[in-house]
Design a protein that fits this description.
By secondary structure, the chain is mainly α. About 70% of the residues lie in helices and about 0% in strands. It contains 10 helices and no strands. The protein is globular.
Length: about 240
């Protein structure tokens, strides 16, 4: 990719990667959950605030959303869904309360012209931050403001939850195995996972489904991992 870019852009991408790597190492030392993700987000925010002319090609962005959808699907296994179904009134009530409060606050900010258009509604919308950013773009909101609001919430929630769990929760967590960066169990399962991620994301983009590049692969991956004999495979490096 770099040889076809102007020299200034090559240096910007390289320096962004290095800054992201350094921040990721720092956060990993403190064992912050999702440290790599938060480090890259923080580096991207810093470069965006400084006006760095960095853009990701739309096709690559769509494919990345497909991978993210498969990653989210990993947590939605049948036993988790069964637990939600058994206590559905509690989960539904909490979800409706959060949705109503965030939508109401977003509507008030929109009516007060604090933020342009529907930016406040999408920025305060609960749920997957990536999906909200994608849908905001499809509906003409200010994507940068929406992304900043959504991912600032992610950073705050992660930091507060980690602090609360560390200081007040008296529970010893089970040891987490170290990820095997270069470990692939089945090349066939990896190929099927990439087909779901890339094929689902591309199809959703062609059909112009709001948030589809993330949501369609996520739904397909959930069905694949719960009702197929094959196992979805998403290596840590990917």
């Amino acid at each position: 990719m770099f040889p076809v870019l102007p020299q200034s852009l090559r240096y910007s991408w390289i320096s962004l990667a290095l800054v992201s790597l350094v921040l990721a190492l720092i956060l990993s030392v403190f064992k912050l959950p999702a440290g790599t993700l938060l480090a890259c987000m923080l580096a991207g925010m810093l470069y965006s605030a400084r006006g760095a002319p960095l853009r990701i090609q739309p096709r690559l962005f769509v494919l990345a959303q497909g991978l993210l959808g498969c990653l989210i699907a990993k947590t939605l296994e049948l036993h988790v869904l069964a637990k939600v179904a058994s206590d559905w009134p509690i989960f539904l009530s909490i979800a409706l309360c959060v949705l109503a409060s965030s939508s109401g606050l977003g509507w008030l900010l929109m009516r007060s012209n604090v933020l342009p258009g529907t930016t406040a509604i999408w920025g305060l919308a609960p749920g997957a931050a990536s999906a909200m950013v994608l849908m905001a773009e499809d509906y003409g909101a200010d994507v940068r403001l929406v992304a900043f609001m959504q991912y600032l919430r992610v950073v705050i929630v992660t930091a507060v939850a980690s602090l609360v769990a560390h200081l007040w929760v008296q529970h010893t967590a089970a040891p987490v195995p170290q990820p095997q960066w270069h470990f692939v169990i089945s090349p066939l399962n990896l190929a099927l996972t990439l087909l779901i991620a890339f094929g689902g994301a591309t199809s959703a983009r062609l059909l112009k489904l709001p948030g589809g590049p993330l949501l369609v692969p996520m739904v397909l991956a959930i069905a694949f991992q719960n009702w197929s004999t094959a196992q979805r495979e998403l290596p840590h490096w990917l």
